[in-house]
Request: fold
Amino acid sequence: MRIALGVSGGIAAYKAAELLRLLQDRGLEIQVVMTRAAQEFVTPLTFAALSGRRVITGMFENPGEALPGESAIEHIAVAQGAEAVVIAPATADVLARLAHGIADDFLTTLALATRAPVIVAPSMNVNMWEHPATQANMAVLRERGVQVVEPGAGYLACGMTGSGRMAEVLEIAESVFRALHLRDDFENETLLVTAGPTHEPLDPVRYLGNRSSGKMGFAFAQAGLRRRGRVLLVSGPTHLEAPSGINVARVETAGQMAEAVLEWLPQATVVIMTAAVADFQATSVVGHKIKKQDGTLTLQLRPTRDILSEVRSQRRPGQCVVGFAAETDHVLENAAAKLHSKSLDLIVANDVTQEGAGFAVDTNIATILFPDGRREALPQMTKLQLADRVLDAVAELRKCS
Ligand code: CTP
Reply:
């Protein structure tokens, strides 16, 4: 879920950095857009470093630096991709331009082009705030459905005291969460999630691995954060960046994944095992690069640790354990057998040979199987949506237990 964070040129611009962190802590991806005036107060570099992405600073900026697919119509792409636009601080000037539909820079163009909720946090001198022009603009914006996080009263940077001080960043963040209808139902839960493949070394340069990208596990991490859960993520080798606000242990092998999982297990209330753990490892890892020699090579393999069964033997009452079954045939039968043999609370089955499901893609097609025999077949959806649906099922089980 991408949020556009507009920063305009007020003394409170530096507080937008803190707002950015609060939004990220709920698993939201942030695209920062700065007006020209904002850059007089804070550098784009600050926001680029915090958000991990390029900050948009103008309409026709550095065309030579545009990434493939980016162009002068980037505002349309950002407008369509954003699920909310929040402008904090919003100066009197930006509010006036929004009220009049003026689109003379990236931020105001974006605000005009989006259909997502727009949230503004005004910040200005008390006289400017109380001026009939500003109040008339605010009335227009409210009437149009723009959500206003009311400024507070207090000491202002200009030396005056009165209304116009930007609302607390926590309050602004809460308005964004409300606009996005984020839920709080995992507030008291700690999710332990495994993600990605494992790599089992053969020699210093080669390993046995699989096609898992880790996307499903990272989607659970994000979904858990959005529902205010605490997230512990154990990830095999992936290229994915973990959302800020979660604890991540990066591992290579099944053995290391098992160690990390068992270390965190006592803290977890919900365990979600999406990792495609390698089932075999070499009986001995060769210390030097294996040479081609006569053109044939026989590998001797032995099973890796079965993390799920170790979790099962060490789990404490009340812990909910969810497994994944990535199958290529007899999908539901195989998954139902694993649900029972591994004493899981839920299993999510998917046919990895289906288009739009399985490894590397952003979508999945899955069926959730419950121990009482119930099955919930889900249509193709993004991995984040699937993670949310599985968390819905977990929440339902926890209500009954
Ligand atoms: N799993 C695990 N440790 C392993 C293998 C699997 O924790 N060494 C977990 C996976 O994360 C998944 C579940 O067990 O949640 C089922 O994984 P899967 O590979 O489908 O099952 P296996 O028991 O390995 O059965 P098989 O490979 O024979 O289908």
Notes: The chain has 14 helices and 21 strands. The longest strand covers residues 82-90. The domain at 190-287+297-400 is CATH 3.40.50.10300 (Rossmann fold). The pocket of cytidine-5'-triphosphate is lined by residues 194, 254, 273, 275, 277, 279, 304, 306-308, 323-326, 338 (CB under 6 Å).
